[in-house]
Design goal:
The protein is mainly beta. Helix content is 5%, strand content 41%. The protein contains three helices and 30 strands.
Length: 397
């Protein structure tokens, strides 16, 4: 497990690594600099329209700040500027939108030249009589053939049949697409098998005035589209300590890897890349890895080429702190899949090669691990269910 704070798109996002962060190697220094301050706090809900929205550091300088609003599944960059002294960032307009999710991605350099990345999210106030759904993938994106359409709602949905019937997922060429509920706040859609390359998918949301629970009505009336790219499925063999990358059925490469150690094994099963970060931070304290003194067991502030595979924190990422000869010969991680890399993420490393050839929605399947199969609701793991079981989780009438 490990927390991940990062730059999305350029640098990365907050994430854990349950069954998934490399061990802290002996003698590896931990960065004491973790002073990026973001307001509102990470995970804050019900923030008023006047915020405040502010990013600051006590010393050094802010290098990059990117704030985005995710509202009705569209993303919109929030304009703002870093102060002349480099210590703070403020938006040009402090007013926030109602019923919106915001993401904040920051990279800062302290007075000693140490770089840190942080990613946070917060949501603004949603009137009590309204509900909204946050959606993936992004509108107008190109995704891998394993992409699953996923909605997370801000309120528990009691009328699941009504909400599911108000969302239509169709495709060209046409295939049957069925929804599946994971609890009362998440609804995923997928076809029986991976999408065919070139498929154009349309998601019609007709949630306005749909009653999800007594007195709670939808506000979204939106159509979004995405395109399925080439088919890439990579097979990680934990026993062989290799990853075979196949593109449209042909083998592109076989890459040496290191996976979960015997006591911290890697999940088996089909996983889907849901986020990609050029560099990210993994800190064990945020997900319960603390020593007897309460301090984090590990803190790697600059993990390169990180690709999220599960919500619980399994990643496939670059590893510059393991010995090169370990890749392909020994499994030493806490559950993540490590690829050889260099500090800063070199452009010619195996990790960089794979990162540059990966799309959100690509499938990574792990075999021959001494662990259970990843749960279907842990990330976009729905491909681990049979089609009959998937359809049984639908409430559509």
């Amino acid at each position: 497990m490990a927390a991940v704070l990062a730059w999305a798109g350029l640098l990365a996002g907050l994430a854990g690594c349950t069954n998934g962060v490399e061990v802290q190697l002996p003698g590896k220094a931990r960065s004491p600099y973790d002073a990026i301050r973001i307001s509102p706090e990470d995970g804050a809900k019900g923030i008023g329209v006047q915020g405040p929205l502010l990013v600051s550091v006590p010393d050094g300088r802010l290098e990059r700040v990117r704030v985005k609003k995710v509202e009705d599944v569209q993303e919109e960059k929030v304009p703002g500027r870093i102060s002349e002294d480099g210590l703070s960032w403020r938006p040009d307009d402090q007013t926030l939108a109602l019923a919106a999710k915001y993401t904040v991605d920051v990279v800062a350099v302290d007075g000693h030249g140490r770089r840190q990345a942080r990613h946070t999210t917060f949501t603004t106030y949603v009137p009590e009589e309204r509900f909204i759904g946050y959606f993936k993938p992004e509108n107008r994106s190109t995704v891998g053939t394993g992409m699953i359409v996923s909605f997370t709602f801000n309120r528990a949905i009691e009328n699941r049949a009504g909400v599911e019937n108000a969302i239509k997922v169709t495709s060209k060429p046409p295939v049957e697409v069925v929804g599946h509920w994971f609890g009362k706040e998440r609804l995923d859609f997928r076809p029986a098998t991976y999408w065919k390359p070139g498929t154009e998918v349309t998601v019609d949301m007709r949630l306005r005035d749909v009653e999800a629970a007594p007195g709670s009505y939808g506000i979204q009336q939106k159509t979004v589209r995405f395109t399925v790219g080439r088919r890439q499925v990579s097979t990680v063999d934990v026993k062989a300590k290799t990853m075979v990358v196949r593109r449209d059925g042909a083998v592109l490469s076989t890459i040496p890897i290191t996976a979960g150690a015997p006591k911290t094994t890697t999940y088996n099963g089909k996983m889907v890349v849901s986020e990609m970060f050029d560099v990210t931070r993994m800190n064990g304290a945020s997900v319960g890895f603390r020593d007897k003194n309460g301090k984090s067991e590990y803190d790697v502030s600059d993990v390169p080429h990180a690709m999220r595979l599960t919500d619980s924190g399994t990643y496939l990422h670059g590893n510059y702190w393991a010995k090169p000869e370990w890749f392909g010969s020994v499994n030493i991680t806490h559950g993540c899949i490590g690829l050889l890399d260099v500090k800063g993420g070199g452009p010619r490393t195996p990790a960089a090669w794979f990162f540059d050839r990966t799309l959100i929605g690509d499938v990574v399947e792990v075999v021959n691990s001494h662990d259970e199969t990843v749960a279907p609701g842990n990330g976009l793991g729905g491909w681990n269910m049979t089609w009959d079981l998937w359809k049984a989780g639908s409430e559509a009438r």
